[in-house]
Amino acid sequence: MKGNLGKILRVNLSDGRISKEEISEEMRRRFLGGRGFAAKILWDEVRGVDPLSEENKVVFSTGPLTGLPLPSSGKMVIASKSPLTGGYGDGNIGSMAAVHLRRAGYDVLIVEGRSEIPCYIAIEDEEVRILDARDFWGKLTFDAQDKLQTKHGRNTGVLVIGPAGENMVRFANVISQRGRAGGRPGMGAVMGSKNLKAVVVKGTGTIPVFDGNRLREMGKEGYREIKGKGNYDFWIRQGTMQAFEWCNENSCLPTYNFREGAFRFSKRLDGYALEKVKVDRKGCPLCNMQCGNIIRDSENRDSELDYENVGMLGPNIGIDNLREVGVLNRMADEYGADTISLGSCLGFLMEASERKLIDPRIEWGDFEGCKKLIEDTVKKKGLGKIVFEGVQKASERVGGGSRDWAMQVKGLEISAYNCHACPGMALSFGTSPIGAHHKDAWVISWEISTDRFSYSQEKVEKVIELQRIRGGWFESMTTCRLPWVEVDFGLHWYPKYLEAARGEGISQEEISELGDRIYALIRSYWIRENGGWSRERDYPPSRWFEEPLRQGDLKGKRLDRARYDEMLSQYYEIRGWNEDGIPRKESLEGLGLDDVALDLGKDD
Amino acid sequence: MTEFKFLGYLAEICGRKSLGISLENPRKLRDILEVEFPEDRSIVVINQRVGNFDSLIRNGDKVVIMPMISGG
Asked: What is the domain-level CATH number for residue B9?
């Protein structure tokens, strides 16, 4: 089967060994690529280890569509055992590194061990070297990328960590192309623990495909279809920032540490405010609907904004100035810290301050105070010492009932959607396989368009349907889901692209089975690494159940815990998991995961 | 007074972000606005409850018409 190169590049930083391995046909069929490969590799190879020890591994994984001439295919998944959550962690990133890795002849790069000195990995086709990075260590991500490209040429792909990763801040991520970010559950910290500053890739080959002419023609058709969509022009102007006004109107905007769902000053931050200060846009390779909005921030530097970072670094911490949000966002990108977790940590500290649980104090909306807090978090000093491991750990330090408003699930901070009045989205956050993240199943539009306040089985089924398509299929192909979800690009294209790329399409049944297999495997990984499971780990924080919205059109709304629990039981039942959220033996075996069933040693 | 809000690119389709009109009698939404929205990609919310373009709108209702977005 074509499409995948069929090759893993493995680099051991402890002893310098570099090896190249074949990917079996069985693995390609059962796990497709991207997230599927990463989950399988971590299951097989990373067991019972400290995430920041040299025994952990970082997996850079592409899929059968990565880097091909079709819409938004310049993506890869970066995965590892997460130092933030202790479970499976991954994130996708748009980067030329994804394209170059495939052109160099590899689907996957696995980095293991730990270098004695700061290093980086330079890949140029067959030649793979571990090089001295002492000159780059301590550099901000933008500077480090520039210096590495000065040395290795502009025609390279670079994945780099900043001081947050070097200092092993638990939500440190990986940055590429001065603003593309991925791996929010601490993949940057794992790289830092290995003394790995960067990966630089240059590939000069051609990615082999089954029918190149057909693929190119269909790729062109796809790009044309996207450009012709009715909301394309609006998307180009606002990108994901169109969601800001929408979420504010629907009381989903993260506001004051998710206490509220609408922000009084929303018009100062929304997509229309953005349009007034936008100076450019940028995006991932091979994309014609670039979502990166470039503004000039209040320090006269460029900052790349999208909805998530404006939501979390704006209303969630009470800041109402878009250019100031731009500064905080740029600082996060340069330090290599995840903006969602960072915004949640800042909001947590502000609320703790308001409740007089910490000293010194930090007020809502204190821009200069936030700048200092970001620096302190990256350097693990002052109040930063409380939050550098995320809000779950911070709540253990602060006490005072703060666990109820530490806005996380499984240790990963909730992304920018308030769910006081969105039971389906709350379930999506509760069951996301990396902790509370939106990429697997964003269901708010659908639930508002049907029956927003219901706790129905139909809603549970919708979450699972989206998890299969977004979390299983798209994360493993590995292409960006935004053409489909944002401008309604036809989902029917992707089986055709797969067929042209590898000689085999994919059926609806196979998509579902792929997603279910990956979900069962990742859930099993969490269980194995945690020594068990309980359904409470699939609950969103108490705030959404116990504290009603106090303002806005949905004042008084909150989630119903008993009815959420009913939906969770329905979710487990559909997935073939028991009442504790543990996959049943027969369910695992039905997905061809007999070895996993045996390993878990659970018969129910 | 009946209040209408139009979000995102739907505001561009109808040429305004909001509208306030008085209705003497209940009327179907599509008969009031006479704008061709992409109905399969739009959500109609009337007084915080889901409706559609055939819903009867009464004076004093708050109507929001928004696109189906997908949250990135």
From this structure: 3.10.20.30
Give buried/exposed letters for B11-47 (b at 16+ CB in 10 A, else e).
Answer: bebbeeeeeeeeeeeebebbebbeeebeeebbbbbbe
Q: What is the pLDDT of residues A28-80, one digit of tens each?
A: 999 999 999 999 999 999 999 999 999 999 999 999 999 999 999 999 999 99
pLDDT per position as a tens digit, B20-66: 999 999 999 999 998 999 999 999 999 999 999 999 999 999 999 99
Percent share of chain A, pLDDT over 70: 99
Give the containing element (helix H, strand E) for A166: helix A163-166
Residue B72 falls inside a structural domain: no
Does the structural domain A428-488+507-600 have CATH classification 1.10.599.10?
yes
Please state the domain count of chain B.
Answer: 1
According to DSSP, residue A207 is labeled -
From CA A443, how far away is CA A461, in angstroms rounded? Answer: 11
Contacting B residues, span 15-54, partner chain A, CB-CB under 8 Å = 38, 41, 43, 45, 48-50
CATH superfamily of the domain spanning A7-202: Aldehyde ferredoxin oxidoreductase, N-terminal domain (3.60.9.10)
The pLDDT value given to residue A604: 46
Q: How far is CA A180 from CA A12, A30, A137, A307, A431, in A?
A: 26, 30, 20, 14, 26
Mean residue pLDDT across chain A: 97
B18 located within any domain: yes
Residue B50 sits in which domain range?
2-67
Which one of B10, B46, B68, B70 would you mutate to disrupt binding with A, by most A Cβ within 10 Å of its Cβ?
B70
Decide if B71 and A444 are in contact by the 8 Å CB cutoff. yes
The whole-angstrom separation of Cα A193 and Cα A113 is: 10
Domain assignment present for residue B59? The answer is yes
Residue A603: what pLDDT?
45
Order of strands, sheet of A57-61, starting from the edge strand that comes earlier in the sequence: A18-22, A7-12, A108-112, A57-61, A75-81, A88-94
Burial A276-309 (b: 16+ CB within 10 A, else e): eebeeebbbbbbebbbbbbbebbeeebbbbbbbb
Q: Does the ipTM surpass 0.90?
A: yes
pLDDT value, residue A3:
67
Of B5, B12, B50, the CB nearest to A448: B50
- Is residue B62 included in any domain, yes or no? yes
Task: Report how far residue A306's alpha carbon sits from residue A291's, in angstroms, rounded to the nearest whole number.
Answer: 7
The reply to whether residue A231 touches residue B67, judged by beta carbons under 8 angstroms, is yes
- Name the 3-class secondary structure at A547: coil
For residues B39 and B29, give the distance between their C-alpha atoms in angstroms, rounded to a whole number: 12
Interchain CB distance below 8 Å, A554 and B64 = no
**H helix or E strand, kind and range, residue B62:** strand B62-67
For residue B71, what pLDDT is reported?
Answer: 77
**CATH of region A231-416:** 1.10.569.10
Domain residues of chain A, as ranges? Answer: 7-202, 231-416, 428-488+507-600
- Put simply, whether the predicted model's pTM sits higher than 0.95 gets the answer yes
Summarize pLDDT for A424-450 with one digit per residue, the tens.
999 999 999 999 999 999 999 999 999
pLDDT at A317: 98
Confidence bin at A602 (pLDDT 50/70/90): low
Half-sphere exposure of B41 (CA within 13 A, CB side): 20
Q: How far is A426 from chain B (nearest CA, A)?
A: 14
Q: Region A233-241: what's the mean pLDDT?
A: 97
Q: Say which of A417, A448, A482 has its CB closest to residue B43.
A: A448
Q: Does B11 touch chain A (CB under 8 A)?
A: no
pLDDT of residue A76: 98
Q: What is the pLDDT of residue A1?
A: 66
